[in-house]
Amino acid sequence: MIGRIAPVLVLATVALGGCALRSDVRRLEEQLTTMQDESDRRDSMLAAQLTQVLSLQRQAGDSLAAIEANLLTFRGETLGQLYDVQRQMLQVQELAGQSTRRLNELRGDLDARGQQLGGTTIAVVGGASGVSGANNASAVQMYEASLQQLRRGSTGTARAGFRQFLEQYPTAPEAADATYFIGESFSTEAPDSAAAYYTQVAEKYPSSPRAASALYRLGSMAESAKDTTAARGYYQRLIAKYPTSNEAALARDRLKALGQ
């Protein structure tokens, strides 16, 4: 009996061992499958993240390119606006009858005359030279008073003052200015008279800074009257005689606008 049971026990033990081995193999396969799935999932996530990073890089590159383009456009527009502002400033100066160079010259003249006036009192006591100094002071006062009237809009009073100034002091340093401002006093009410005085400034006082302003005013008036041929002539004459003046820069712009 015992002899029969022993083989049966051996077979049972072997069978149980085989079952245990297959179970371990299955568990190992399941673990490997799980690990593979997790690895695939991580790879998929990494690929998605990489794709997102590349997309962000492309967007950043496009944004930078757009910013650079906008900066270039802004720079060009700003330079253009600055040029327009400068040109408008020159036009305002010209319309006011005072260029920057002329203002500096006037300041220098006023300083020099102030020094002269400071010594006039002593000179007057001395005799004839004092009389000359007094005359110079009177000329300056008459000119300045007339100019103030023009700035206030009293064109008739200013015109009469400038004419009297020219009669009494025809060789004064301000003679060209006085003639020019008589033309300015006529500019809105009698353009033909204004043009006559501007012409007189250009021809009689060619070395005065007012000559360039007078030529530009003549060109502007001819252009307003639709006489483009005359306007071009005045602008070309201005550029040829006074190429470095502020008015010459304005004249070049007008010639371009007129198609030349």
Blueprint of the fold:
Layout lengths: L1 H94 L4 H27 L1 H25 L2 H14 L6 H12 L4 H14 L4 H16 L3 H14 L4 H12 L3
What key phrases describe this protein's structure?
260 residues, mainly alpha, Serine Threonine Protein Phosphatase 5, Tetratricopeptide repeat, 9 helices, 88% helix, 0% strand, rod-shaped
Describe the structure.
It is a single chain. The model is unreliable at 97-101 and 110-132 (pLDDT under 50). The radius of gyration is 48 Å and the shape is rod-shaped. The protein has helices spanning 2-95, 100-126, 128-152, 155-168, 175-186, 191-204, 209-224, 228-241, 246-257. Helix 1 crosses helix 9 and helix 8 (228-241) runs antiparallel to helix 9. It has 260 residues and is mainly α. It folds into 2 domains: 51-95; 96-257, Alpha Horseshoe (Serine Threonine Protein Phosphatase 5, Tetratricopeptide repeat), CATH 1.25.40.
Question: What's the short story on this structure?
Answer:
This protein has about 260 residues and is mainly alpha-helical. Helix content is about 90%, strand content about 0%.
The chain-level structural class is mainly alpha
- Name of the CATH superfamily of the largest domain: Tetratricopeptide repeat domain
Global geometry = rod-shaped
Uncertain residue segments: 97-101, 110-132
Question: Please, how many helices?
Answer: 9
Distance between the termini: 134 Å
How many strand elements? 0
Radius of gyration: 48 Å
How much helix is in the residues?
Answer: over 70%
Name of the CATH class of the largest domain: Mainly Alpha
Largest sheet: none
Count the domains.
2
Strand content: under 5%
Task: List SSEs in N-to-C order.
Answer: HHHHHHHHH
What CATH architecture label of the largest domain applies? Alpha Horseshoe
CATH topology of the largest domain: Serine Threonine Protein Phosphatase 5, Tetratricopeptide repeat
The overall average pLDDT, rounded, is 74
